[in-house]
Amino acid sequence: MGQLKRSAKRTDLRSGYTTGACAAAAARAAVYALLTGHAISKIGITLPNKAQASFQLARLDIHQTGVLAGVIKDAGDDPDCTHGLEIQCFAAWQEQQGFKLTGGEGVATVTLPGLELPVGEPAINPVPRQNILAMADEEWRSHPAHLRQASGVRLTIGVPGGEEAAKQTINERLGLLGGISILGTRGTVKPYSTSAFASSVRQSVQVAATNGLAEVVLTTGSRSEKAAMNLYPHIPAIGLIQAGDFIGIGLRSAKRYRLQRVALVVMIGKLSKLVSGRMMTHVSGYAIDFGQLSAIAEECHLPVKIVDQIAQANTGRYVLDCVRDQPQGDQFLNRLCYEAWQHAKQYINNALYVEVTLIDFNGDQLASSGDVSTPNSRGHDE
Predict the structure, then answer these.
(1) Higher-confidence residue: 294 or 277?
(2) pLDDT reported for residue 154
(3) Distance between CA atoms of 45 and 37, rounded to whole angstroms?
(4) Which residues neighbour 132 within 8 Å (Cβ) at sequence distance 6 or greater?
(5) What's the rounded Cα separation, in Å, for the pair 309 and 276?
(6) What domains lie within the chain, and their CATH numbers?
(7) How far apart are CA 248 and CA 369, in angstroms?
(8) CA–CA gap between residue 222 and residue 241 (Å, rounded)
(9) Where are the transmembrane segments (predicted)?
(10) From CA 118, how far away is CA 103, in angstroms rounded?
(11) What dihedral do alpha carbons 46, 143, 148, 99 form, nearest 10°?
């Protein structure tokens, strides 16, 4: 399988290749064997980012009806549910001129509008689709015409085990049924890359908007999503979007696709960062400003002892424990929601209605931006 060179430092993480790159390699190998009748053990391709890469073939089976080539997906050190899957291409002659790209076992089919692909098409995204066809065509043109037994070739991309792996993705919620998507705009995978997650948030909002939703709920994980299902029972699954650390991406996408309302359902750690206007809330990013939280606690007339404890805190959960049993605790938590609401509104230039809800670690609602007693806050967007 294709591998990028390891860095000399052991602490460095190893990069890998996308499903799209693996599919392009399998397609080129299959076309080669279809034309020549010869087996090979590896194949080189040009990635979408124009870099060259070589892939070891897991299989190259020559049949009377065509050629089946396979490449094992190597995601490097990225936590990817497709790592280790075999990305296959079956190449067969067709009378139609040129190449016809289809999806086989384990490749999802598009069933909802709003994606980059039409309903009914296999979920092979535009960039990898172009790369697959380009590599197949390059191999086709590199051999003499007398080897061609027909005018064109049908390429069927398959991923055994893809349907099971897709259960770990949001594909079903996006209307991508029956398997995984063939993805990759560069061809390479950077370990723990944030770009793929951010892209999935944008795509989820786009699908929700395209399918007629005027409101979505952005959550930060499975627990907050479960709570959101109870808080917003009228929102269908397609409108419940796990934005993770990318609340800002979700908000801007909602503005871009002209939604009317966005609800944020968060826990104390993420909320504490939103209070400071940090729309990127990853733990390795900006830290919680406990001084700011302490100042808000003082404004809410919490006891001096509690104010000092918050100033010295090192986690949002500790802050929550400090105020949970205080008479002014609810006021403080509602105020945090209100501060986060203000920053969220500013982030999208007041383009749509926003509300912020804080839940505890059991999923119960603790506070809301609509419950704070602040001048001119009632109704927020009225």
Answers:
(1) 294
(2) 98
(3) 20
(4) 20, 23, 24, 27, 89, 101, 124, 155, 157
(5) 19
(6) 16-187 (3.30.2110.10), 195-371 (no CATH)
(7) 17
(8) 10
(9) none
(10) 14
(11) 20
